[in-house]
Amino acid sequence: MRFDLTDLRLFLAVVDAGSITHGAADAGLSLAAASERLRDMEATGEVVLLTRGRRGVVPTEAGEALAHHARAILHQMAQMRGELGHYAKGLRTMIRILANTAAVTEFLPRRLAPWMAAHPQADVELKERQSVEIAKAIAAGFAEIGILSSAAVATGLTLRPFALDRLVMVASRNHPLAAKAEVRFADLLDQHFIGLTGGALQRHIDMQAENLGAKLKVRVALRNFDGICRMAGEGVGIGIVPESAARRSKRSARIAIARLQDDWATRRLSVCVRSEAELTSPTRSLFEYLSAPAG
After folding, report:
1. What is the tens place of the pLDDT at every residue in 230-274?
2. What is the DSSP annotation of the chain?
3. Domain containing 14 — which CATH number?
4. Do the Cβ atoms of 170 and 260 come closer than 8 Å?
5. Same domain, 56 and 23
6. pTM of the full structure
7. Domain of residue 113, residue span
C-alpha cells in the first residue's frame, strides 16, 4: 500500500466529518478529487475502508485501523516540523488558521495585523468554519491554530481565552421591538430576517431555529454585517449580528440594538492548538500573541 500524506489527511477528515463532501472541504480538495483518491486508496490496498450510506460514511474495521495509524503518522510529522522549525531562519512559513465567523470578521483583522507586520516572513491562510468543525480539524492536524466558541467540545486541545462574542438583534428604530433592551430568539421567529450569505454564523443561527421547530423567513441574504445593519435600519427586516458589528454600524445605520437572552448567543471564544510542542517558532509566537489580553 502506498498512501501519501494528502491521502492520510483526507481520510481522517472524512472519518471525522462522517462525510466525503465535508471531509474534502476540510482537506482543501474538490469533491471529485477526494472521491477519486479514496477509490484509489481502496483499490490499491484491495480493502474497503468506508461504508457509504445515505447519512454519510463510517469507517470499516480496516478503516478504523488506517485512521489509528494515520493519526500517529501525522502527529509525528507535526512534531518533526516543530523541532526543525527551531533551526529554520529566513524562510517563508505558512500558518493555517480556522476560525468562526465572528473571529474572522470582527476580531482577527485588528489582532492579526500588528503581528503579521512584525513577521514579514510569515503568511496566514485563514478559513471560516463552524466551531465544532474547527475542533475536529485542529485535532486531526489540518490547521495549526483554531479560534472557536465554548459550544464546541475541544477535548485534548490546548485552549486559551481569546474574546467574548455577543450576538444581538438589530432592527429599525421604528420597529415594534426597538424599545426592548433584550429579546429571546424564540420571540423573533415570526419576523422577517436579513440573513448572512453562507458562513458559519448563519448555519449556527439556522440550527437554533431548527431546534425550536422553525425555519427563518429570510427576505434577503448579504455578505457582511454592515449591510445587514443598514438594511435593518431601513425597515427591511431584522438581523442577528455580533454586538461589535452592531455598535460600529450604529453610527451610520438607523438601528436599534437588543441583546439576545439565549445562552448560545453569548459565546466565549478561545484560541486553540493541538499541542504547543508541535508548533514551529512562528506559529508558537502567533499563538502566544493571540492568546495574550487584547489591547
Report:
1. 999 999 999 999 999 999 998 888 899 999 999 999 999 999 999
2. ----HHHHHHHHHHHHHT-HHHHHHHTT--HHHHHHHHHHHHHHHTS--EEEETTEEEE-HHHHHHHHHHHHHHHHHHHHHHHHHTT--S--EEEEEEE-HHIIIIIHHHHHHHHHHH-TTEEEEEEE--HHHHHHHHHHTS-SEEEEETTS--TT-EEEEEEEEEEEEEEETTSTTTT-SEE-GGGGTTSEEEEESSSHHHHHHHHHHHHTT---EEEEEESSHHHHHHHHHTTS-BEEEEHHHHHHHTTTS-EEEEEE-SGGGEEEEEEEES-GGG--HHHHHHHHHHHSPP-
3. 1.10.10.10
4. no
5. yes
6. 0.76
7. 93-163+271-291
Q: Model confidence over 109-146: pLDDT tens digits?
A: 999 999 999 999 899 999 998 898 899 889 888 889 99
